[in-house]
Specification:
The complex is a heterodimer of chains A (about 270) and B (about 350). With about 270 residues, chain A is α/β, with parallel strands linked by helices. Chain A has a single domain, classed as 3-Layer(aba) Sandwich (Rossmann fold), CATH 3.40.50.300. Chain A is built from 9 helices and 12 strands. Chain A is globular and about 55 Å long. The relative contact order of chain A is 0.16. Chain B has a single domain, classed as ABC transporter involved in vitamin B12 uptake, BtuC, CATH 1.10.3470.10. Chain B has 15 helices and 2 strands. In chain B, helix 1 packs parallel to helix 14 and helix 3 packs across helix 14. The longest helix of chain B has about 35 residues. Chain B is globular and about 65 Å long. Chain B starts with a helix and ends with a helix. The mean pLDDT of chain B is about 85. The chains are: A alpha/beta (about 270), B mainly alpha (about 350).
Chain lengths: ~270, ~350
């Protein structure tokens, strides 16, 4: 696929990133580069370092060695507010301490733009973001009164309202029903179509195959594979990474990749 | 845009109602005492004092002197202390990410009392009239940072940790004040004991002025960071993702809290629960957004303390009940109520 000249340099670039927590290496020698308009899924077993990798890209954790650059600049050189205009982050845990309404929470996504010309569009952006995550009928509800899935959607709305060229999502589909899982990732896909770079941590490999341009497989802090879904999602590789026999096959009609553990026959 | 307008109207109504309540409370407070003065005379005397002569002027020099030398400074002290404590509570709750955080409960007020006691017992006057406030401020600052670092983990403070830290800090500062009381002369003992109850009795213009300065600095500072305080309720990480320099904001928040509480405590003693009750009620009335919460808490705190002061002077005839006793009698049960609710809604103690 051809890229335009302005996005010649990757939007996200990690070079030899190594991160220790205490004496334990969480990330080891990670290299990753993501182009503008690309959607990359990070997959891997529990505790592999997926969320930590996302935190490193977000600038929340500081690797002991290696460099993280986003938007063509080392992440450490950004002040907090300009950084918030480059990348938005959806965390796994979505808490709101005080009784803010859904609309107020989504509106918080506009705060990096306060005092800038972009803030003229606040009302429209907030309304669009609420509609995108299908939360209009709950926009006056207090965030703390929502279910887990509704909280995740409201928080995704907040991330969308931030309107950043890089969007980082940590398990955005974990608490969602099937319809809203598809909605969430379709939204991510639409963002990519408009030039946004999306990095998303996912557990569901079938979802990752359906939506991501490329997939990074993390296992025990090391990147075992990085490539298109067809290159990466093979039975052999996944079986080794997840330590369980895994089958990869194609949907008879759509040709989409389906990943599933090999299960015992329950008949008899 | 109509949404924004209707929100403005609602907020304006809240501010106006609180403002009117405050005016009424102030007039009532200036009326009652050993000699009762009529409301029109109170207004007339005030207007004459600021250079406007009306038909309602003071009826005797004695009345005029009573109002200007005793009652007005006391009322002003009530206003600024009430506003300071309520705003301090609102800031502290945002900084700790916990609606139960309150200067009195976590021990900041008693921390301030230690410094103030030291300056009184040892008769320190290095900075003149400001010596006691400076000491109160310094020890409140140390106490607050201690509580803060001790009770936070992972971006929020658990209720249990916060309260246990408060118990430990209050126990320690209580012992320190008791020791200083034991060491001090009879006069300084009386002064220290007077604080622990908290009272607006004997407030003077100079003192009210100093508290007013602290109050103004605290409120203006809080308004400047109000929007960022909103973001803090999303937790540390999400606030950072939205461009907040979280550590810096926390530091500012703590310094503002200590400015507000430390200076108040230095002159009127420990008046607990104002910072808990007022912001909570304001959140119920007009939502948790900090810009409006800070303004309405300042007004609400002033109203509450002026009314509480009227009650303190009239509940027991011919005696000035310490106002701190009164606020704790009312605030304590309210705290229990909030605690029960927090436990139920969080499904545990988190």
């Amino acid at each position: 696929m051809m890229r335009s000249a302005e996005s010649a340099a990757p939007m996200i670039q990690l070079e030899n990133v190594t991160f220790y927590r205490g004496t334990r290496a969480i990330l080891r020698d990670i290299n990753l580069s993501v182009e503008a308009g690309e959607m990359v899924a990070i997959v891997g077993p529990n505790g592999a370092g997926k969320s930590t990798l996302l935190s490193a890209i977000a600038g929340d954790v500081h690797p002991q060695s290696g460099t993280v650059s986003i938007g063509h600049m080392p992440i450490g050189e950004y002040r907090p507010r300009p950084l918030a205009r480059i990348r938005s982050v959806l965390s796994q845990e979505n808490i709101v301490t005080f009784p803010f309404t859904v609309r107020e929470v989504v509106a918080m996504g506009r705060s990096p733009w306060v005092g800038l010309p972009e803030s003229d569009e606040d009302e429209t952006v907030i309304a669009d973001s609420i509609d995108a995550v299908d939360m209009r009928y709950l926009s006056g509800r207090k965030f703390v009164q929502l279910s887990g899935g509704e909280r995740a959607r409201a928080s995704l709305g907040r991330v969308l309202a931030q309107r950043t060229p890089i969007v980082l999502l940590d398990e955005p589909t974990a608490a969602l029903d099937l319809k809203h899982q598809e909605t969430a990732l379709s939204i991510a896909r639409e963002l990519c179509a408009a030039g946004t770079t999306v990095v998303v941590v996912l557990h569901d490999l079938t979802l990752a195959a359906a939506y991501a341009d490329r997939i990074a497989v993390i296992n025990d802090g090391v990147m075992d594979a990085y490539g298109t879904p067809d290159e990466v999602l093979t039975g052999d590789l996944l079986s080794a990474v997840y330590d369980i026999p895994i089958e990869v096959f194609r949907h008879p009609a759509s040709g989409g990749v389906i990943v599933q553990p090999r299960r015992q026959d329950r008949q008899s | 845009m109509s949404r924004r307008q209707s929100r403005r109207v609602r907020q304006g109504t809240v501010y106006a109602s609180l403002g009117m309540l405050l005016v009424v409370a102030v007039i009532v407070s200036a009326m009652v005492g050993q000699i009762t003065i009529s409301p029109t005379e109170v207004i007339g005397t005030f207007l004459r004092g600021i250079g406007i002569d009306t038909a309602w002027g003071p009826q005797s020099p004695q009345h005029e002197a009573t109002l200007w030398a005793i009652r007005f400074p006391r009322v002003v002290m009530g206003i600024v202390v009430g506003a300071s404590l309520a705003v301090a509570g609102a800031i502290m709750q945002a900084v700790f990410g916990n609606p139960l955080a309150e200067p009195g409960v976590v021990g900041v007020s008693s921390g301030a009392a230690v410094g103030a006691s030291v300056s009184i017992v040892f008769g320190l006057t290095a900075w003149g009239a400001w010596t006691t406030p400076v000491f109160a401020f310094a020890s409140a600052l140390i106490t607050t940072f201690f509580v803060y670092y001790f009770s936070r983990s992972g971006g929020k403070s658990e209720v249990v940790t916060l309260l246990l830290t408060g118990i430990a800090v209050n126990a320690f500062t209580g012992a320190a004040v008791a020791f200083l009381t034991f060491m001090g002369s009879a006069a300084s003992r009386e002064q220290i004991i007077f604080w622990q109850f908290g009272s607006l009795n004997g407030s003077r213009w100079g003192q009210a002025g100093i508290v007013a300065v602290g109050c103004a600095v605290g409120i203006v500072g809080a308004l400047l960071v109000a929007r960022q305080l909103d973001l803090l309720s999303l937790g540390d990480n999400s606030a950072r993702h939205l461009g907040v320099d979280v550590e810096r904001l926390r530091f500012i928040g703590i310094v503002l809290t200590v400015t507000l509480v430390g200076v108040s405590v230095a002159f009127v003693g420990i008046i607990a629960f104002v910072g808990l009750v007022v912001p909570h009620m304001m959140r119920m009335i007009q939502g948790p957004s900090h810009r409006s919460l800070i303004i309405s808490s300042a007004l609400g705190g002033a109203v509450l303390l002026v009314i509480a002061d009227v009650a303190a002077r009239t509940v027991i005839p011919f005696a000035d009940l310490p106002i701190g006793v009164l606020t704790s009698i009312i605030g304590g049960p309210y705290f229990f109520y909030l605690l029960r609710r927090a436990r139920r809604s969080a499904g545990g103690w988190a």
